[in-house]
Sequence to fold (125 residues):
Amino acid sequence: MSTLVAQFLKFATAGGIATSLHYAVLILLVEAARIDPVAASGTGFAVGAVSNYLLNYRYTFASTRNHAAAFARFIAVALVGMLLNLLIMWACIHGMQMNYLLAQVVATGLVLIWSFSANRRWTFR
Fold:
């Protein structure tokens, strides 16, 4: 179990870097460009996903799978994660009238569980 915990901590560190990029893009697009927060979140998610793949491939999972196979699987997991993120953002912002940053925190926490599980069991296994 300690290997799983260590791996999750590495995943969370890599995710923290990717999430920082995601949030920076989100805030910039909402505050400076006045883009809808749900659309801005999708763009930020895509930016964060690129760094997340590179960090998780090497640092978290030390994958030996070739990049073509690993990246294709990662994109599949990321697309599901992006869809979940957008649905949660929409529900929190438009359904519950939540502030977009608080909504993003909720979405990030829920998508984290999906991403770790799917990437550990399928993408980088």
Q: What stands out?
A: The radius of gyration is 15 Å. The helical segments are 2-32, 37-60, 67-95, 100-123.
